[in-house]
Amino acid sequence: MRSCNKKSHTGIIHSIESFATHDGPGIRFLVFMQGCIARCLYCQNPDTWDLRAGFEMDAGEVFEKIKRCMPYIKASGGGLTVSGGEPLLQIDFLIQLFELCKKNDVHTVIDTSAFCNAPDRRLIDRLIGLTDLFILDIKASREALHKKITSRNLNEALEFLNILETKKKPYWLRYVLVPGLNDSQTDMHALNKILAGLDCCEKFEFLPYHTLGKHKWKHMNLKYPLEGVSPANTRHIESARGRMTAEKIT
User: Fold this and answer.
1) Does residue 197 belong to any structural domain of this protein?
2) Residue 132 lies inside a defined structural domain of this protein
3) How many domains does the chain have?
4) What is the CATH number of the domain that holds 215?
5) Residue 139 exposure: Cα atoms within 13 Å on the Cβ side
6) Residue 2 falls within a domain, yes or no?
């Protein structure tokens, strides 16, 4: 796996979808990057963790595939979304790919948890300038719980969020709601504190926890950490929204 600071035009890819509709505006060409340094308890794609797995493609090869899908991408107001794994682990590749997109007027989105082991800030700034929209996940609103859920520090995500705010870059914010784990009144109060005063957040949404990726853990001979935890339903989401309203910070 190449470091964030090493110049490279090659990316390590997990998989590609040519027709995605839930990963940004319009129809998206969706690239899943291989490699992640978090270990989220509810991860639906643990097969993306391994930094040595996946297959290599250079930016030009990926863009040639995007070009074949351009008619319906452009007609729908869509574009390219890069997800993972954690895409920010391969910033050099993303910069090269997004430069090609910008030259061809292709809308760009990065779906990230902002876990990148602190790469060169200049590279982050350059990538942000090439990215039209970020989709940022907040896994928990309290430091200790965030560390328990992800193995990473909450401050990593909050620092990246602050950079986006400073640069006035639009983003969507998402919070995976796990019943009994990160949906308490205390959690919602802390979440409201994070959300208070954000100017560039275009959309916030709860994502209901599900177990659709549980079979992958079993296939990889891994113990599923949330065994017995029920998926979140509409009632859980509405209840969390109600607690957020009750804790509204003005």
Assistant:
1) yes
2) yes
3) 1
4) 3.20.20.70
5) 25
6) no
In a domain? residue 3: no
Q: Structural domain of residue 225, as residue ranges?
A: 10-246
197 SS3 class:
coil
223: Cα separation from own chain's centroid: 24
Q: pLDDT (tens digit, 9 = 90+) per residue, 95-112?
A: 999 999 999 999 999 999
- CB hemisphere CA count around 232 (13 angstroms): 20
Place of tokens 């990926």: 62
Q: pLDDT tens, 213-228?
A: 999 999 999 999 999 9
Residue 125: which of 169, 157, 158, 85 has the closest Cα? 169
pTM across the whole model: 0.92
What is the helix (H) or strand (E) element at residue 16, kind and residue range? strand 10-20
CA 82, CA 85: separation in Å to the nearest integer?
10
The whole-angstrom separation of Cα 174 and Cα 187 is 14
